[in-house]
Write a structure and sequence with these properties.
Blueprint: E1 5-10, E2 14-19, E3 22-27, H1 35-56, E4 65-69, E5 72-76, E6 81-82, H2 93-109, E7 112-113, E8 122-125, H3 130-135, E9 164-167, E10 174-175, H4 179-196, H5 201-212, H6 218-230
Antiparallel strand pairs: 1-2, 2-3, 3-5, 4-5, 6-8, 7-10, 8-9
Length: about 240
Protein backbone atom coordinates (compact mmCIF):
# COMPACT_ATOMS: atom_id res chain seq x y z
CA UNK A 1 0.00 0.00 0.00
CA UNK A 2 1.53 3.30 -1.10
CA UNK A 3 1.56 6.23 1.32
CA UNK A 4 -0.18 9.46 0.42
CA UNK A 5 1.87 12.56 -0.24
CA UNK A 6 0.77 15.76 1.51
CA UNK A 7 2.15 19.18 0.61
CA UNK A 8 3.05 20.96 3.85
CA UNK A 9 4.96 23.96 2.46
CA UNK A 10 5.35 25.70 -0.86
CA UNK A 11 8.05 28.25 -1.53
CA UNK A 12 9.48 30.12 -4.49
CA UNK A 13 12.15 27.49 -5.09
CA UNK A 14 10.70 24.24 -3.79
CA UNK A 15 7.68 22.26 -2.62
CA UNK A 16 7.87 20.33 0.66
CA UNK A 17 5.78 17.17 0.95
CA UNK A 18 5.30 14.69 3.77
CA UNK A 19 5.10 11.00 2.91
CA UNK A 20 4.68 8.82 5.96
CA UNK A 21 7.60 9.64 8.26
CA UNK A 22 9.65 11.17 5.48
CA UNK A 23 9.85 14.65 3.99
CA UNK A 24 10.47 15.25 0.30
CA UNK A 25 11.86 18.56 -0.94
CA UNK A 26 11.38 19.05 -4.67
CA UNK A 27 12.88 22.01 -6.48
CA UNK A 28 10.31 23.35 -8.93
CA UNK A 29 10.88 24.13 -12.58
CA UNK A 30 11.12 27.80 -13.53
CA UNK A 31 9.41 28.61 -16.81
CA UNK A 32 11.28 31.88 -17.28
CA UNK A 33 14.64 30.08 -17.47
CA UNK A 34 16.03 28.19 -20.42
CA UNK A 35 15.18 24.49 -19.84
CA UNK A 36 18.80 23.33 -19.86
CA UNK A 37 19.93 26.15 -17.57
CA UNK A 38 17.01 25.51 -15.26
CA UNK A 39 17.89 21.82 -15.04
CA UNK A 40 21.54 22.56 -14.28
CA UNK A 41 20.71 25.14 -11.61
CA UNK A 42 18.19 22.92 -9.82
CA UNK A 43 20.52 19.94 -9.94
CA UNK A 44 23.48 21.96 -8.66
CA UNK A 45 21.51 23.53 -5.82
CA UNK A 46 20.04 20.18 -4.81
CA UNK A 47 23.50 18.61 -4.67
CA UNK A 48 24.89 21.56 -2.73
CA UNK A 49 22.12 21.44 -0.13
CA UNK A 50 22.48 17.66 0.18
CA UNK A 51 26.21 17.97 0.87
CA UNK A 52 25.64 20.65 3.49
CA UNK A 53 22.95 18.64 5.27
CA UNK A 54 25.16 15.56 5.33
CA UNK A 55 28.04 17.59 6.75
CA UNK A 56 26.07 19.23 9.53
CA UNK A 57 24.10 16.13 10.58
CA UNK A 58 26.64 15.42 13.32
CA UNK A 59 27.15 19.09 14.22
CA UNK A 60 23.70 20.52 14.97
CA UNK A 61 20.14 19.19 15.09
CA UNK A 62 19.02 19.06 11.46
CA UNK A 63 17.07 16.79 9.10
CA UNK A 64 18.82 13.51 8.35
CA UNK A 65 19.34 12.89 4.64
CA UNK A 66 17.81 9.64 3.41
CA UNK A 67 18.56 10.19 -0.25
CA UNK A 68 18.71 12.69 -3.12
CA UNK A 69 18.22 12.52 -6.85
CA UNK A 70 18.36 15.32 -9.42
CA UNK A 71 15.88 17.87 -8.01
CA UNK A 72 14.70 16.02 -4.90
CA UNK A 73 15.97 15.48 -1.37
CA UNK A 74 14.41 12.92 0.97
CA UNK A 75 14.81 13.61 4.68
CA UNK A 76 13.70 12.33 8.05
CA UNK A 77 10.52 13.92 9.31
CA UNK A 78 11.19 16.22 12.29
CA UNK A 79 8.66 16.12 15.11
CA UNK A 80 8.04 19.53 16.60
CA UNK A 81 6.78 23.05 16.09
CA UNK A 82 7.69 25.82 13.73
CA UNK A 83 9.51 28.29 15.99
CA UNK A 84 8.17 31.37 14.21
CA UNK A 85 4.68 30.61 15.49
CA UNK A 86 5.63 29.85 19.08
CA UNK A 87 8.77 31.72 20.17
CA UNK A 88 6.87 34.69 21.62
CA UNK A 89 4.82 32.56 24.03
CA UNK A 90 7.52 30.13 25.12
CA UNK A 91 8.32 30.34 28.84
CA UNK A 92 11.97 29.55 28.07
CA UNK A 93 12.39 31.76 25.01
CA UNK A 94 15.74 33.11 26.25
CA UNK A 95 17.17 29.61 26.67
CA UNK A 96 15.86 28.69 23.23
CA UNK A 97 17.48 31.80 21.75
CA UNK A 98 20.79 30.98 23.40
CA UNK A 99 20.62 27.51 21.88
CA UNK A 100 20.03 29.09 18.46
CA UNK A 101 23.22 31.10 18.96
CA UNK A 102 25.17 27.97 19.86
CA UNK A 103 23.87 26.21 16.74
CA UNK A 104 24.89 29.14 14.54
CA UNK A 105 28.36 29.14 16.14
CA UNK A 106 28.80 25.44 15.37
CA UNK A 107 27.71 25.98 11.77
CA UNK A 108 30.06 28.90 11.27
CA UNK A 109 33.00 27.13 12.89
CA UNK A 110 32.40 24.29 10.43
CA UNK A 111 32.55 26.77 7.54
CA UNK A 112 28.80 26.66 6.78
CA UNK A 113 26.62 29.73 6.21
CA UNK A 114 22.88 29.12 6.44
CA UNK A 115 21.92 32.06 4.24
CA UNK A 116 18.30 32.28 5.39
CA UNK A 117 18.31 32.38 9.18
CA UNK A 118 14.75 33.01 10.31
CA UNK A 119 12.59 31.38 12.97
CA UNK A 120 10.50 29.98 10.10
CA UNK A 121 13.48 27.76 9.31
CA UNK A 122 13.76 26.40 12.83
CA UNK A 123 11.80 23.68 14.59
CA UNK A 124 11.57 23.33 18.34
CA UNK A 125 11.55 19.65 19.25
CA UNK A 126 10.28 18.12 22.46
CA UNK A 127 12.86 15.33 22.38
CA UNK A 128 15.46 15.52 25.15
CA UNK A 129 18.48 14.82 22.94
CA UNK A 130 19.37 15.75 19.36
CA UNK A 131 21.16 12.42 18.96
CA UNK A 132 18.00 10.55 19.92
CA UNK A 133 16.09 12.52 17.31
CA UNK A 134 18.61 11.60 14.62
CA UNK A 135 18.55 7.91 15.50
CA UNK A 136 14.80 7.63 15.80
CA UNK A 137 12.70 6.50 12.88
CA UNK A 138 9.97 8.76 14.28
CA UNK A 139 7.30 6.12 13.74
CA UNK A 140 5.42 7.39 16.78
CA UNK A 141 4.93 10.93 15.51
CA UNK A 142 1.49 10.64 13.97
CA UNK A 143 0.28 14.12 14.87
CA UNK A 144 3.25 16.29 13.95
CA UNK A 145 4.79 17.56 10.75
CA UNK A 146 7.70 19.65 9.59
CA UNK A 147 5.69 22.80 10.25
CA UNK A 148 2.85 21.39 12.36
CA UNK A 149 1.41 23.04 15.45
CA UNK A 150 0.72 19.75 17.23
CA UNK A 151 2.86 17.33 19.16
CA UNK A 152 4.08 19.34 22.13
CA UNK A 153 0.90 20.58 23.77
CA UNK A 154 1.93 24.21 23.29
CA UNK A 155 5.13 24.04 25.32
CA UNK A 156 8.52 22.40 25.55
CA UNK A 157 8.61 19.09 27.35
CA UNK A 158 9.29 19.56 31.05
CA UNK A 159 11.78 16.70 30.81
CA UNK A 160 13.91 18.58 28.31
CA UNK A 161 16.45 20.67 30.21
CA UNK A 162 18.19 21.91 27.09
CA UNK A 163 16.17 23.43 24.24
CA UNK A 164 16.44 21.38 21.07
CA UNK A 165 16.27 23.63 18.03
CA UNK A 166 16.47 22.00 14.61
CA UNK A 167 17.67 24.09 11.67
CA UNK A 168 15.99 23.36 8.33
CA UNK A 169 16.03 24.63 4.74
CA UNK A 170 19.63 25.07 3.67
CA UNK A 171 18.59 25.94 0.11
CA UNK A 172 20.55 29.19 0.30
CA UNK A 173 23.37 27.70 2.34
CA UNK A 174 27.00 27.72 1.22
CA UNK A 175 30.54 27.06 2.41
CA UNK A 176 32.51 30.06 3.63
CA UNK A 177 34.97 31.06 6.34
CA UNK A 178 34.61 34.79 5.61
CA UNK A 179 33.88 36.92 8.68
CA UNK A 180 31.58 39.08 6.54
CA UNK A 181 29.37 36.11 5.61
CA UNK A 182 29.09 35.05 9.24
CA UNK A 183 28.17 38.57 10.31
CA UNK A 184 25.51 38.78 7.61
CA UNK A 185 24.05 35.46 8.81
CA UNK A 186 23.66 36.94 12.30
CA UNK A 187 22.22 40.13 10.84
CA UNK A 188 19.59 38.04 9.05
CA UNK A 189 18.34 36.42 12.25
CA UNK A 190 18.30 39.83 13.94
CA UNK A 191 16.15 41.22 11.14
CA UNK A 192 13.89 38.19 11.25
CA UNK A 193 13.37 38.60 15.00
CA UNK A 194 12.55 42.28 14.66
CA UNK A 195 10.09 41.63 11.86
CA UNK A 196 8.34 38.60 13.36
CA UNK A 197 8.94 38.93 17.11
CA UNK A 198 9.30 42.67 17.68
CA UNK A 199 8.34 42.62 21.37
CA UNK A 200 11.06 40.15 22.32
CA UNK A 201 13.56 40.98 19.59
CA UNK A 202 16.16 42.72 21.73
CA UNK A 203 16.18 40.17 24.57
CA UNK A 204 16.25 37.18 22.23
CA UNK A 205 19.00 38.54 20.02
CA UNK A 206 21.14 39.28 23.06
CA UNK A 207 20.65 35.66 24.09
CA UNK A 208 21.59 34.48 20.59
CA UNK A 209 24.82 36.45 20.82
CA UNK A 210 25.46 34.92 24.26
CA UNK A 211 25.18 31.48 22.70
CA UNK A 212 27.32 32.57 19.76
CA UNK A 213 30.20 33.36 22.13
CA UNK A 214 31.21 29.72 21.75
CA UNK A 215 32.36 30.50 18.20
CA UNK A 216 36.10 30.73 17.68
CA UNK A 217 35.57 33.91 15.66
CA UNK A 218 33.08 35.55 18.01
CA UNK A 219 34.97 38.81 18.56
CA UNK A 220 35.76 39.34 14.88
CA UNK A 221 32.22 38.53 13.79
CA UNK A 222 30.70 40.86 16.38
CA UNK A 223 32.86 43.77 15.20
CA UNK A 224 31.86 43.06 11.59
CA UNK A 225 28.20 42.69 12.59
CA UNK A 226 28.17 46.27 13.86
CA UNK A 227 29.51 47.42 10.49
CA UNK A 228 26.92 45.35 8.63
CA UNK A 229 24.12 46.83 10.75
CA UNK A 230 25.40 50.35 10.15
CA UNK A 231 24.86 49.79 6.42
CA UNK A 232 21.20 48.86 6.85
CA UNK A 233 18.03 50.01 8.51
CA UNK A 234 18.23 47.66 11.46
CA UNK A 235 20.55 48.61 14.29
CA UNK A 236 20.34 46.45 17.38
CA UNK A 237 21.45 47.61 20.82
CA UNK A 238 23.45 44.92 22.62
Amino acid sequence: MSLKSKIIARGAEAVISKIGNKVLKTRVEKGYRHPELDKKLRTRRTRSETKILKKISSIIPSPKILGSDNFEITMDFISGKKLSKHLDKLPNKIAVSKQIGKNIAKLHDAGIIHGDLTTSNMILSSTSSPSNQHKSKLSHNKDSSLIDNKGMGGRVSSNSKIPNVFFIDFGLGFHSDRIEDKAVDLHLISQALEAKHSKIHEACFKAILQGYKSSKNYSQVLVRLKKVESRGRYKTQY
